Amino acid sequence: MSITLGTSFYLGIPASTKNSAYDCVSMAADEGIRHFFTTVQMPEADISGHLQQFREIAELAAKMDLRIMADAHPIAFKRVGGSVSDLEPFRAIGITDLRLDAGFSDEDIARLQHAARQLGMTITLNASAMKAQTIERLKQMNFPLDGSVACHNYYPRIESGMSTEFIRQQAELLHEHGIKIAAFAASEHCHRYITYEGLPTLEVHRATRPDLACRELLTRQWADIVYIGDQTDDREELRRFMTVAQSPHLVLRMRLNPLCGEAERDIALNRIHEHLPQDFEVTYRARGDRQRPELLFIAPQSQNVAREMGTVAVDNALYPRYSGEIHIAKKNLPLDPRTNVVGRIIEDDLRLLDAINPGTSFAFEAVDL
Predict the structure, then answer these.
(1) How far, CA to CA in Å, does 329 sit from each of 59, 194, 278, 279, 318?
(2) Helix (H), strand (E) at residue 174
């Protein structure tokens, strides 16, 4: 799976970071990020007074082979210059991909596509606004849909973010036509003006770490490209985010059972698990160790507890053939002396369990909440 990760920068508005937009781009590029999002249409942003700063970032982008996608409404042409037939002013400030917001007619889109192609730029569609009728019109215009990108909106106002059902529906529609999907996760700490509430696509991700939000979007195949919507200068956040590209498995946070032993703790926390190729009635089951010639001895726990829905457990030595195998309870299950309870998925992450399907890769993260 080809994964593209990016982050954002903004000019013309009060900074949400101690470092400048230029320094944030430079820091992110040092961490391996090559894709950036920005906007030239915010009502509060005086972009026309910051074109020189854009050009400085453009020089850095050209030197490091970075791509910059800008959200654009027809008003952007009044601020930056150019027209639907002339995108040179956008290219001059480093923009390589123009993401179309509302306000463009079908004829405008056709001209934009031609103008972008002439300059080596690309046109990105609005994933949040796409409908089947829109796609049919684009086909009639000979817009190259297969392999194109459509980018969702982000939602600055709290409680205004997209629902998971809507993004699922949009993913089915767009992927059916070969369109790649971009979406946003919010920074954990660096929140952008004007509301300072984060910039996620999904409302359920508003207070979620961007790496965890990204993992859900990718695992559920709701997005192929994920940007941190806020401008961030948190290097550790960027590093965690970039680990997703190397291993995009789902991560489930878990409170540990204090009676859990080192052997089962090691199995749960220090591996990336893969669900078996079947679906099971009462548990999610990962591939186990039974094919290994030497199995780790796992002593039964001194005290057994019932397994609530979301409980993570490892079979012990009383289950010889299955010793070391891990499962997650899909529903409340009785205690069993042959299986040791490692912990339970935290409430906020229980909704992620239905993202686990046959073959899904997942891991656990211990938390103390």
Answers:
(1) 53, 43, 15, 13, 19
(2) helix 164-176
pLDDT digits (tens, 9 = 90+) for 66-118: 999 999 889 889 889 999 999 999 999 999 999 999 889 989 999 999 999 99
Q: Quick one: which H or E segment has residue 37? A: strand 35-39
- Residue 225 near residue 75 (C-beta atoms within 8 A): no
Kindly indicate the confidence band of residue 135, based on its pLDDT and cuts at 50, 70 and 90.
very high
Q: Where in the chain is the domain with CATH 2.40.100.10?
A: 252-366
CATH superfamily of 252-366: Cyclophilin-like (2.40.100.10)
Q: Which residue has the tokens 């917001």?
A: 101
Nearest-angstrom CA–CA distance, 350 and 309: 9
Write down the pTM of the prediction. Answer: 0.96
Q: How far is it, in rounded angstroms, from Cα 244 to Cα 2?
A: 11
CA neighbor of 228 nearest in space, from 11, 35, 15, 30: 35
Q: Please provide the size of the chain in residues.
A: 369
